[in-house]
Every structure is written in structure tokens, then in C-alpha cells.
# Entry
Amino acid sequence: MNQVASQAGLLVTAEVNHNFAQIPGIDKKYGTSIYFLPNGGNSSKRQNLYIRNNKDYPVEFGFELEGDLLSFKIVSL
# Structure
């Protein structure tokens, strides 16, 4: 999601990187920690990926699962 949103020109915030985990087809610079700790306060907030639509038009996130392959795309509406 980080890579696709960044390439789409959306505003992406990911305070904690997760660049040590190798994901096939994803550049390590887009590695993102996503973690939730109940009552974790700022610790949990910093572990999330935030994507903001800074465009002048709406966008839609699309997910598609075919067998073991999950694809994610962002489309302008």
C-alpha cells in the first residue's frame, strides 16, 4: 500500500520503517510497520501507515484476490 500510494502521488506517512522484511516485488524503502497495541497510545499510532488523498479529485482503493495473489490499486474517480 505504501508503494502504490506513493507512486500515485498521495501523501503517505509511515513513521516506523520495516525495511528488514523482504517482500518479493516491493522495494525495501516501502517497508512499513503496521502494529496495534491496545491502550498503546502514541506507540500504536506511530506504527501505522497513513495515506491522505491530497488530490483535487476522489480516489478509490481496490483490492483483488486471485488464489494466493493479492493486488492493490488506486484509481481516480
